[in-house]
Amino acid sequence: MVVRPALLYRTEYWPVKKTQVRRMIVGEMTMIRWMCGFTRLDKIRNEVIRKKVRVAPIEEKLRETRLRWFRNVKRRGVSAPVRRCEAINLIQCRKGRGRPEMSWNEVIRGEMKFMGLTDDMT
Q1: Residue 76 to residues 22, 29, 37, 48, 68: CA-CA distances in angstroms?
Q2: Which end of the chain is less congested by CB atoms within 10 angstroms, N or C?
Q3: How do the domains of the chain map onto residue ranges?
């Protein structure tokens, strides 16, 4: 499970799309299956393999790291300096056709709604 931190590196403060999460899930399950010696031809469900290895889904870990980052951002003072990379990722800069990309704040609000949390609980 050394690969999981590499997959989740710096994902706490950029809005991850569903397709990207899906790719992370597939990549992680491929590695877990390889680690256990199973192939897809064995027709063993992902849940069974996860239970055997005792590994939480990467989606939950992604949500957990995002909410932990949100807690740190909320705790930081208003006058604290913001690094340039954080400011770029937190602000929407892209304009174009179609639906605008979700901002980090929208993603966090969705995660908190999914988990049933409030700002105070984080």
Answers
A1: 32, 36, 45, 41, 13
A2: N
A3: 3-115
| Burial of residue 90 (number of CB atoms within 10 Å: 0-12, 13-18, 19+) | middle
Give yes or no for a contact between 37 and 53, defined as CB atoms under 8 angstroms apart: no
**Model confidence pLDDT, tens digit, residues 63-94:** 888 888 887 777 766 666 555 454 445 544 55
- Residue 58 · residue 25 · CB < 8 Å: yes
Q: Quick one: tokens of 111?
A: 């995660």
Using an 8 Å Cβ cutoff, are 102 and 21 in contact? no
Q: Choose among 7, 10, 24, 16: nearest CA to 106.
A: 16
Q: Angle between the 104-115 and 58-75 helix axes, to the nearest 10 degrees?
A: 110
For the chain, list residues with pLDDT below 50: 84, 86-88, 91-92
Pair of tokens at residue 105? 């704040």
Q: How far apart are CA 71 and CA 66, in angstroms?
A: 9
Give the chain's length. Answer: 122
